[in-house]
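Supplementary Text 2. Reproducibility record for the structural model of the 154-residue chain.

All settings were left at their defaults, and a single model was retained for analysis rather than an ensemble. We include the record here because the model underlies the residue-level annotations in Supplementary Table 4.
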Amino acid sequence: MDNKLVREDPLTVGSVAKRCAVKVSTLHFYESKGLIKSTRNIGNQRRYNRQVLRRVSLIKAAQKMGITLSEIKEQLDTLNGKTAPNQEDWQRLSMHWKDSLNERIQSMQKLRDYLSGCIGCGCLSMDACPLYNENDKLATIGNGAVLIDNLAVK
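Retained model, structure tokens:
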């Protein structure tokens, strides 16, 4: 058999899972979220283009950096139909994610510094706790953890 034909043969879901060190259910999930695509063979079994290996590796790397799947999908959708990013695409994607990560790091540092006095003492004193919300007066600002949310954007 010609090596070129073997290299172009589509991959089974099991072989992609093994090569990428993910569970088959992870590939199904990624596909349900539109992160990867498969075709179906005559027996209705999933088959993947070999470029999916690079795409799944990129998804895993981005997740390890704390990038959400929705952020990953948003950026992968900019690839204009390419199954896998090339070096130029990776540079653009990684710069976008680097900026996002830097913003998150700054927010987390502010949050850490703001909460250290309260959490550090362990007492959660009503007089000193920056999260205490007597009589729900923060409801006028908005819903959820408004003090933390507002701190993160400062």
